[in-house]
Write a structure and sequence with these properties.
The complex is a heterodimer of chains A (335) and B (235). With 335 residues, chain A is of the alpha/beta class. Chain A is 27% helix and 24% strand. The longest helix of chain A is centred in the first third of the chain and has 11 residues. The model of chain A has no long low-confidence stretch (mean pLDDT 93). The chains are: A alpha/beta (335), B alpha+beta (235).
């Protein structure tokens, strides 16, 4: 099967193509009212996807849920399950309004809706014996969900998912915070993985430097860490200490887009960026914000990963690593 | 006197395919029995495939078959005339490509991959995919109609100009500001720019779910209890 880490600028969207024109969607960034919110649907259509086995939103921030309403609109009667976290913002989202409409119209059944939570063990969301693949939810716990919902902190109750194919593994960490990882580590021990979608776009996850080092040594140990980040994000993503902690544990880091933290001259990075192969926000043609800053400059762009029981193959990994060497001061080379 | 027809296929070592029986049948044909037919474009209905180069098919009257170098024997046109066989060949290319184009590499058999490779030699599949509009179902409402609809606000919050001439349904002109609708929209596969609205219909304002019912619904949804629990999983 294939897993795509879509370049949706500042947002997150992971799409698993599981065969037979069917997909599992984990998050659908980016923000509402932006052109990027159509990228997941555009991607699914270009891949000829006819059925969504599961449409999962790990929490209710727009950079993870903004495009879900487009997918729901198009595939409304071709979605098997809709998974969400009932955090503080979900019930006020237009996405929830649309779900309720579809329920009223009889186009969705209540049984198709699931809340992404696990009790005291990982909960299975999907499995496929032919592919020897399983998708589990490992966080949040119901109590975390209740607390996070009360405190209106959707990040703290982000769903964390794990895809296992034979002994190969991808962890989708969404915007999970350190507190969740403490619980995950306590109940499951250290989780080695081939690929990690780095929590919170490589941003602050409410922990100290020591805790950060612990996270990537004792909680989750990735071989490759993928950061979904937008060139013009104003949150300071990805943080230098996060990237350093990842490289220190031996992980190779890939970002979907490059930021000013890696180069002052983003247009020169754009000019040497890899050809665009899949739907994504980044552009080979120069484009700027109203303030004149470069935007949507690809680093790895949309990343395609071919995964089976034997190997995890990141398409054009070597070419991307060679590109990084040409960038002025890439954060991922500091480690 | 019997001539050997030039159309001959080498043994495909990579896929372990021996074309000798196919070639042998053609060698038995006399050259007067064969006719060359140029294939300059392949169009079926609205679908038009961009060809890398025009190719020449050879129609064998005795066999009622059209072969194309590099494509046959994987795809062979059948027909009582060169034209009929040529049409059959185009239809088979169309059917084969459409069945393969949405298969992912990990789903393809060696034979599927071979057929796609063969077709890709004379049809530019990437150009075809990059120029074939995609159709999406979208929900929105009229944002501005002064006096006729000009712009719409889609469900995801984006606003887009949709002039009347981009909508195939003439009733669109009667839509007023705020009218909710459901539309099938044709869009550019690369830029996602609107090409035209193929169909559109009014939607009624759906009734709002009462708070009590919503609360009951949320209680019912619960967690993943309806899924398998405590499955084997090791860190």
């Amino acid at each position: 099967m294939e897993v795509f880490f879509l370049d949706v600028a500042q947002g997150m969207c992971h799409i698993m193509l599981i065969g037979d024109r069917t997909a599992i969607v984990i998050d659908c960034g980016s923000g509402r009212r932006t052109k990027q919110s159509t990228i997941p649907l555009q991607f699914l259509q270009r891949m000829g996807i006819e059925r969504i086995h599961a449409l999962l939103t790990t929490h209710s921030h727009n950079d993870h849920m903004g495009g879900a309403i487009n997918i729901l609109g198009h595939y409304q009667d071709q979605i098997d399950r809709i998974g969400f976290v009932n955090d503080g913002e979900f019930l006020t989202s237009p996405y929830w309004e649309r779900i309720k409409e579809l329920l009223s119209d009889g186009k969705l059944e209540r049984e198709q809706l699931i809340r992404l939570e696990c009790s005291n063990a990982p909960q299975e969301l999907w499995n496929n014996s032919t592919l020897n693949a399983k998708l589990h939810v490992i966080a949040p716990l119901p109590v975390q969900n209740l607390l996070g919902s009360d405190q209106e902190r959707p990040n703290a109750t982000s769903a964390v998912l794990i895809l296992d194919i034979g002994c190969k593994r991808i962890v989708f960490a969404s915007d999970s915070e350190f507190v969740e990882w403490k619980d995950i580590q306590r109940s499951l021990g250290t989780i080695p993985c081939n690929l990690l979608s780095v929590p919170h776009h490589g941003g602050y996850i409410k922990c100290s430097q020591d805790e950060l080092a612990w996270l990537y040594q004792d909680a989750v140990k990735p071989e490759v860490a993928i950061i979904s980040v937008g060139t013009t994000n104003n949150h300071g993503h990805p943080r230098e200490d996060i990237v350093r902690a990842l490289t220190k544990c031996g992980a190779k880091v890939m970002c979907t887009q490059v930021t000013k933290k890696c180069s002052d001259d983003l247009e020169s990075v754009r000019s040497i960026s890899l050809p665009k192969r899949y739907a994504g926000a980044s552009s080979k043609a120069a484009c700027f914000t109203g303030g004149g800053n470069s935007k949507n400059v690809a680093c790895a762009g949309t990343i395609r990963v071919k995964i089976d029981e034997k190997e995890v193959d990141i398409e054009h990994f070597a070419a991307h690593q060679a590109l990084v060497e040409k960038i002025q001061s890439p954060l991922c080379r500091f480690g | 006197m019997t001539f050997v027809i030039a159309l001959e296929y080498p043994c495909d070592v990579a896929h372990n395919i021996d074309y000798s029986p196919f070639n042998q049948r053609r060698r038995q044909c006399e050259v007067t029995d064969a006719m060359q037919t140029p294939i300059t474009n392949i169009s079926i209905g609205d679908t038009r495939y961009p060809m890398r180069q025009a190719c020449v098919g050879t129609y064998f009257r005795a066999l009622e078959e059209l072969s194309v170098q590099g494509v046959s024997p994987h795809i062979v046109g059948k027909g009582k005339s060169a034209e009929e066989a040529s049409n059959d060949f185009c239809l088979k290319v169309h059917a084969t490509l459409q069945s393969l184009i949405n298969k992912r590499p990990f789903e393809m058999t060696d034979e599927d991959q071979l057929k796609l490779d063969v077709i890709s030699q004379f049809i530019d599949v990437t150009v075809y995919q990059n120029t074939t509009p995609i159709k999406v179902r979208q929900f929105g409402r009229i944002r501005r109609a002064r006096p006729y609809p000009e712009s719409v606000a889609w469900d995801d919050g984006r606003v887009e100009q949709v002039p009347i001439d981009k909508v195939e349904d003439s009733d669109y002109v009667t839509y007023r500001s705020g009218q909710p609708f459901e539309a099938v929209v044709q869009r550019d596969p690369i830029t996602f720019e609107l090409i035209r609205i193929v169909s559109i219909e009014r939607r009624h304002e759906s009734h709002r779910m009462p708070a009590e019912e919503e609360s009951q619904l949320l209680d019912e949804i619960g967690s993943l209890k309806n899924l398998r629990q405590n499955t084997e999983w090791t860190p």
